[in-house]
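Researcher: Here's the sequence for the chain we discussed earlier.
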Amino acid sequence: MRLEIGRALAREQSGDPGMLLASCTFARALRAVGLLRSGVPGFVICVVPRGYRTEEYEAAAFAMLKTKRDDWGDQQIKVRLANPPRKKGVPHRRVSIFDLKGLEVLVARDIGEVPKDVRFAATAIVRVERPTPGHVNAARRLSGRAPFSREVAALLAAKPQNALLAAILQPNSVEGRIDELDDLNRESSGPGLFELPGYEELKPWARRLSADVARWRSGKLSWSLVTRGALISGPPGTGKTLFASALANALGFKLISATVGRWQAAGHLDDTLAAMQKSFRDADDGVGAVLFIDEFDSIGRRSARPGHHNDHYWQIVLNDFLSLLTNLGDGVVVVGATNFPEWIDPAILRAGRLENHFELTLPDRTSRAGILKHHAGDAISLDSLSGIAEDLEGASGADLERLVRDARGTARGEDRDLELRDIIDRLPERKRRTAEQQLRLAVHEAGHALVALALGYATSATIEIRDSFDPNATEFLGGLASYTVVPDYLPTETSLRNRIAVSYAGMAAEAAVFGDRSLGSGGIVGSDVEHATSIARRMIGSYGLGKTPIFLGTPGDLGNAPLPERQEAEVTQMLSDEWERVRAMLAGELERLLDLAAEVVANQSVRIERGGIAKAA
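Model: Thanks. This is the structure I predict for it:
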């Protein structure tokens, strides 16, 4: 191995400041360990600075070896990348101990890319540092531009690779414009998270993260001690994307947005993996980034029952994803977003990866008023908007933003400032429920509450119904029963069956009172019927609580799919038994059920306690 760099080589690279900087820093690292011009046999592993591309170092190594890339003699090639980019139609091949023939320089983004046996076989592992101020000014001069002052060159040397190259190529002075370079890698538009209303469940975690990022920046905290991954779940319209953008702004990080769907749309398997790797590479520059991955449930999972269609494809994608996630460098916060958290492989959610899980819901009345105020600005008081927020139940953050935006458009059309009446005029027309519909809602929720208290599932319950709704809302609440649940740290077969009974109680109450059932108990994931069915399937297929104890997979592996025929028959029988049990319970409590439902209709909200009486909430 004989590497060298001189004036002639520097002149050849003067048109490419990135390659020149790579050559200078690489040569400096080799000189520091006594390998430059040493003629030592073997190969060197070159680990590039965090956040820098490997392409420039690969080209610099070829130039320093005075050799050219030989695509036809891949086995004999002197310079290789530890993890080369994927090429369409060409099998992807990372470096291995079995194909090192002729190798003199191996370039890696991270030492974790290099297998341990290859590391052991290397003559040396050279960690290349960032360019020095002298290197920066050398690239500046050889690009035909005036050098920077020593102070400015030192500041630029600490910047990300793209910002440093932008400064070198800038024909004018960058004195006084250093902050602009920071903005190249930040999400600068939009508010920070702590300026936004809502997200109360996430803000404590985000504040701790923000404090840790400040300590990391000042060198007082290792990044390995920062809790830096989170999964955000919730229905459409709850603000998952806005959260990621606002978090990046609050941290002073850039935002790298990706979706699993876009990765897949890149083409075949190799294209998908290459697109995924690029997203991680874009985020991993050591300066700070929030990597936001939407449609996170589409990443796939390892099946408990091999042989499913496309299992091999998703196994490769998932394994590569886990490797990228595990080997991320400092300053990267990963936020995954999904509507279906139960579909995500548990390996992704384990400690050290996306270990924090937050569930977003549609904003409540207080949050709705705050969101309206945020978009309306100082033109309208919060108190004025609180009454409006009451009539916007079921509206998402995006719905509320559009409402104010449309109201502003009306005001602009009349050449005046926004006024409260502009928002009121844009409010959707609410439909009022009939007396019979309100009674049905009350009976349904009262059934849930009475059975929950009778079976010891809860010590108290609050029943709420709504007498009107917005038919155009993302979703709208008819009724709700919420509980003070009795802790159940070691669920038994009996307590799990009781949960099924509580889930069925609303529908059973409707059947007992009206002799007819509505569709409000089923139809979607998370509904009463789905919840009961899911519990029964887990009991039979995962927990071993069927007639014959058997394990078919974890609850996550089972998902919502039917079990094998024999076990599914047990599930059906269990559900049938609990349905009949809860129907019999409520048939004997008709008078109490109707009295409680009437109280709910009269007050819209009622709280009851086990063994106590109903009270208006």
